[in-house]
Design brief:
alpha/beta; 244 residues; seven-stranded parallel β-sheet; globular; 7 strands; single chain; 8 helices
């Protein structure tokens, strides 16, 4: 049974659909209620089992309710994917404290709250589990106007490692996936700008942005038995960006 946040669109949606196709029951969670309802409906239409949950991952009480509901319906949580995230482009000298806090709350505090609540449930059931955090290559490299986003993803990379160490005795692996440019609503504005799109493609040896389904494939691998001995790692899926 898998809980996937950010499942209304992009990487989260693709991952929820992929897990359902692999036979997992899925709780698709997102702050976008209508969007996540559509994700769950598409899974059900394809013969899968899915439950939609409207959740703000920055709110501890809502996260607690999400986990409690998943346990009440399915009895356990085997996989958590923290895919909920936001990105804005703001020059550092103009970056407000409010915007800094908003981005870090979603991209870093959200995975902390969801990861802790899911891990507590996994420990109680004694079956182990898998936690997968969607970070970014911006945890390693920075583009202009992304100080807040890069800080949030760098923090999530280190949170992944810290969680992996502490949760290993409970049979819970914790890993990250670091996508490069992916064709999702998150970067739609950048991809629509010919100058910025050309800049992005110039960094990618494979010469194209990724499809969300390609990131979902990495999430399927990390949740599989083939990845049982991998923890604290970051799987980079960036078309070669970081090697250039």
């Amino acid at each position: 049974m898998a809980v996937v946040t950010g499942a209304a669109s992009g990487i989260g949606q693709a991952t929820a659909i992929r897990y359902a196709r692999e036979g997992a029951a899925v709780v698709a969670a997102d702050i976008n209620g209508p969007g996540v309802q559509k994700t769950a409906a598409s899974i059900a239409a394809a013969g899968g089992q899915a439950r939609a949950a409207t959740v703000d991952v920055t709110q501890a009480s809502q996260v607690a309710d999400l986990v409690a509901d998943a346990l009440a319906v399915f009895g356990q949580i085997d996989i958590l994917v923290n895919a909920a995230g936001i990105e804005t482009l703001v020059p550092f000298l103009e970056l407000s404290e409010a915007e800094w806090t908003r981005v870090l709350a979603t991209n870093l505090t959200g995975p902390f709250l969801c990861g802790q609540a899911a891990a507590q449930a996994m420990v109680r059931t004694g079956r182990g589990g898998r936690i997968i955090n969607i970070t970014s290559i911006n945890a390693e490299v920075v583009l202009p106007h992304q100080a807040h986003y890069a800080a949030s993803k760098g923090g999530l990379r280190m949170l992944t490692r810290a969680m992996a160490v502490e949760l290993a005795p409970h049979g819970i692996t914790v890993n990250a996936i670091a996508p490069g440019a992916v064709d999702t609503p998150l970067i739609a504005r950048s991809l629509a700008d010919p100058v910025r799109r050309e800049m992005l493609l110039r960094h990618i040896p494979l010469g194209r942005v990724a499809r969300p389904e390609e990131i979902a494939s990495a999430a399927a691998f990390l949740a599989s038995e083939e990845a049982a001995y991998i923890t604290g790692a970051t799987l980079v899926v960036d078309g070669g960006w970081l090697i250039t």
